[in-house]
Amino acid sequence: MNFLKRLKTFFNPQQQVATVQLPLGEHYQPIARRRPILLPSPTGKAYLPMTRRSLHPSTQVQPDSFVIVFYFSEAGEQLAQPQIVSGVRGRAFNISMHQFKNYYVSRIENYHGYFVYPRAIIQLIYARQPAAPVIVFHFDEAHHLLVAPEYIVGQLGQPYETHFLDSQRYRVQHVTTNQSGRFGTKAQIVTYSYRLRQIRWANRYLTGFIRLTADVVSYREPGIDPLAEKLPINTIWRVYQKVQTAERQTWYDLGGQWISTANTTRVDYYQQPQPQRLVAPLFQQAAVIPGSRRAAVDFVPHRSLRTWTQPYGDAANYLQHGQIVNIIHGLILSNNSVWYELEDHTWLEEHYLRLLSAGQNFTAPIKRLH
What we know:
Blueprint: H1 3-11, H2 52-55, E1 65-73, E2 78-87, E3 103-109, E4 119-128, E5 134-139, E6 150-152, E7 159-161, E8 170-175, E9 180-182, E10 188-196, E11 199-204, E12 209-212, E13 216-221, E14 224-231, E15 236-238, E16 241-245, E17 250-253, E18 258-260, E19 264-267, E20 283-285, E21 293-297, E22 304-308, E23 315-320, E24 324-332, E25 338-342, E26 347-349, E27 353-355, E28 366-368
Parallel strand pairs: 1-4, 5-10
Antiparallel strand pairs: 1-2, 3-4, 5-6, 7-9, 8-10, 11-16, 12-15, 12-19, 13-14, 16-17, 17-18, 20-24, 20-28, 21-24, 21-27, 22-23, 24-25, 25-26
Protein name: MucBP domain-containing protein
Domain MucBP: 67-116, 133-195
Organism: Loigolactobacillus zhaoyuanensis
């Protein structure tokens, strides 16, 4: 077997080369040419060509790395089933950022975007979305705030609960229906209404008038903290509220000061006097420049006081206890009551004001008229 045949046999071992003795006949020649004959292979074919798979070896690789993704709330609650991602180390992968109602992703622990370890854990931590606040107001019967508004904050969907004031002077009369509930996307307002504990019942927003049949002591509250000056006889006052205390005493609210219903008589019809019909003043303020005299409102802490359009006139505005005001005019009427006109042209009696130190240009606020 020459070199070429050996080489062919080496690369294709399935081909078998054999020599056959030709039969002797009349035309036999002494030298016979030997020809190679391909014998059938055991599979039934003399030559087995390579298939497509054998020409392109398989490149599929079994996964050797797993990542487990957990979804937890900040309280440790599992929000969804874990996600399992498998792959080959060194290759990139993606995880699902699930969205949950009223939650947002606050942090991711052990995050990586490539398969690095045979086993790894990634944790997505979700926090509840902040909600709109709940604002709580505490009012007395005159709609004055007893304390500063209370702001309650929380997360969406979480429950909230409000509470009434623990006060020795006031008791709850009414509260809105959203005293408790759940935080939402819109601000909610809870309103508590209170009544003085000594008040049994009250008629509010009255519009009648009364006449005093004697000099009457007035109080800052029903039966509490009497004022120094008495209200003069035969003066007419408007009534804004009528209440009865636990001792069954009835009181009138004259717009910031209270009197007992004794020594009073109702006036069925009363026409407010015109300014020119006021009793002629005995004294008048010397300086009428705004800001020349300052005073502080002296009433009840955390309460407001009503001013008037003129002495014994109609109700005008409200002033807070401790508020600084400017006096531009003063009157002492024939009944010896002293009234000050403020720079907004409303009036207030002197015992509701505490005069501050006078300026250099204003040393005598009131003088006698000649």
